[in-house]
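Per reviewer request, we include the raw input and output of the structure prediction for the construct analysed in the revised manuscript.
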Amino acid sequence: MARGFSEQGFWQSLQRAAVYAGREVVEKALTLYFAAQRPETPVWAKTVIYSALAYFILPADAIPDFVLLTGYVDDLGTLAAALGAVAMAITPEVKAAAKQKVTDWFGDGTEVSSGSAPEGDAIREIVIE
């Protein structure tokens, strides 16, 4: 694994960032993570993936994540670049696994907002097991 990446750190960072980073960033991170878990993914691709995920989870980056509205822009760019570089390792099964996990956490996007968040709102209470 790339230096700076740990599975536990990834899940903890993803849980903390999920609400603020948004669905798109989380789905890209999960797509990369699931691609890296496949034994068929080449070592060079895993290196790219773990490097991008390490950048995502490490607190020091180009735009600090706590900066309102723009804090995850650099993370999104890094994840998107990594996805482009390792596109051959992104199978339909990897995409489906990431999409399912995001749907589990955020919902399917068909809920209608009633002005205030209902109790148990999936976006506000993301539990990562």
